[in-house]
Amino acid sequence: MARLTTLKPAMQAQPSKLATVNPESWRTAKGTAAQRGYGYKWQVARAEWLVANPLCVYCQREGRVTAGSVVDHIVPHRGDMKLFWDRGNWQTLCRPCHDVVKAAEEAAGQIG
To answer: What 3-state class would DSSP assign to 12?
Structure first.
């Protein structure tokens, strides 16, 4: 009878694709979204902004007409409530532009 040989594992551990938050970030220091300023007052202001400014500004620059769903802070406020509530620092983005394009700009240091 032949002797069995041990096979090496065919699969290797993969790095996590989950985003991690810097423990020193202003987001982790203040707890909940409401504690960071995104409570009822923000929800009302956000809804009013989207009625008055319904289109994604990034898509408009590319010649596309896309409904926006995110009120984005042009310059990241990083917990600065004066900058947070400055409507001159707000812009409407669609979810893909906010989550992909704007996030890439911030990660590359092009914003803030």
So the answer is: coil
Return phi, psi of residue 91, to 5°. Answer: -150, 150
Sign, CA torsion 98/101/103/105: negative
CA distance linking residue 55 with residue 53, whole number of Å = 6
Q: State whether the Cα torsion 85-61-68-26 is positive or negative.
A: negative
Exposure on the CB side of residue 106, measured as CA atoms within 13 A? 15
Domain boundaries, the chain: 36-107
> For residue range 1-30, what is the model confidence (pLDDT) as tens digits?
677 777 666 666 666 665 555 555 545 556
pTM reported for the whole predicted model: 0.69
Higher pLDDT, 21 or 85: 85
Report how far Cα 20 is from the mean position of its chain's Cα atoms: 13
